[in-house]
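Ticket 4471: requesting a sanity check on a complex prediction with iron/sulfur cluster. Repro inputs:
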Amino acid sequence: MIQFVLSNDEYQYDIHSLVKAFYPKDQIKFVMEEDLEESAKLQIYLHLNQDMIQMKAMQGIKEIYSMQEFADSGNKSSYRNILKRMIYNGLSLITKKELPWGTLTGVRPTKLALDRLEQGISRAEIENFMSREYLCSKEKIDTSLQVAEREITLLQEMDYKNGYSVYIGIPFCPSTCLYCSFTSYSSEKFGNLIQKYLEALYQEITFAGTCFRDKKLTTVYFGGGTPTTLSEVQLDLLLQHVENTFDFTYVKEYTVEAGRPDSITYDKLRVLKKHGVSRISINPQTMRQKTLDLIGRKHTVEQVVDAFHMARQLGHENINMDIIIGLPGEDKDDVAYTLREIDKLQPDSLTVHTLALKRAARLNTEKSNYEDLTPTDTKAMLHLTEEYTKKAGYLPYYLYRQKNMAGNLENIGYAKFGKEGLYNILIMEEKQTIVALGAGASSKFVFPDENRLERVENVKSLKDYIERINEMIERKRSFLLHNELLSM
Ligand code: SF4
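Returned structure tokens:
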């Protein structure tokens, strides 16, 4: 356990995220001085004065680190950065660890690079800034800049400022993966609710079609869950309803995450092709069968390969594959094996996720069963994926981080030139309004002139979504009316 005595609570969240990155397995507690326990691994005192930050780290009665620095509490962002650097330097010295992203704990490190490139700031200045202010490693700064430069080019090719995108969530999957934290219901248990769900979803889609008539629809994305859990007839009717509702004239990308290979059939892929779906995902996560069995994917490696070949046969020319590094029981050799198998298929894009331990996921709630299987070399695994993608001609084009990621690393999307997932950039960089429909869907409304972003969320529970669909629609309508985005 790591204990903190803080003179004020304002930066507790920032401190917690940073310390967790150094001590992922330890509990972090904020306590009063009189409640400090000698048995704690580390006791840290932080005095956050108006013009000075002081830190002292103790192990029992032994002081092992102390530091103080001037800081102006009137400038919150600079004060926060000084505080985080002080903690980082202390913990780095104590643990002899360095974090690849330094003190950056937010989810979108590329935004720092992207915003500055858009302002005309030079590469060298951005490198200096990220290194000085956030102590990011050179390697991560290079990746951020490479991603941001690719994003700028892709954004320039889209009239995203006059557009919006639509996300439609299908919260059903054939079974629930061990690490899942999404809104997802197993079709085995909840299959009887699929039709009712679709009826509610149709209503929400119809309403969304009445908004933004003066804006161009840029991308449409079906995610979840696994949209191909629906039958081919359900898929056919749903896509038809979407195409009848929205004007597709300017749509640059139409994605359906087929995702789980055990949900994919020839007929469903044919339906997607018939509707002009331009990008699909077939996600193995790993090509090791033993891991697939362990993580509850309930499909075989052969099913991945077969689904991929079927899709190619039907003319799907933009196929993404997702893999996860840091899966229980896997090591570097397993990742290398997965990459060799994927190389035989040559997907158009490859998204590399680093496993994030989410609170609600079974991998966390049942963690005692998997603790011995936690990989220790995620950094080396990620490095393998970087080497592979470079050699195979993929370029990094989007990047994001989540809380509690193995090795404090990142998720990164690679694509062959021109095969990037545009929706991923739009949502990650928060460049465009995304109207999100379905259970658990969260719409993001972007007001670029005011540098403002607002979320309107739907309920997560399937039952609630079905029963309260009118309320979900009303929620969006009143938000749009209030913000003068919808005429009466
Ligand atoms: S396929 Fe994705 S959404 Fe479905 S259970 Fe697995 S992790 Fe969750």
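Notes from triage: The first strand starts at residue 2 and ends at 6. Leaving this open until the requester confirms.
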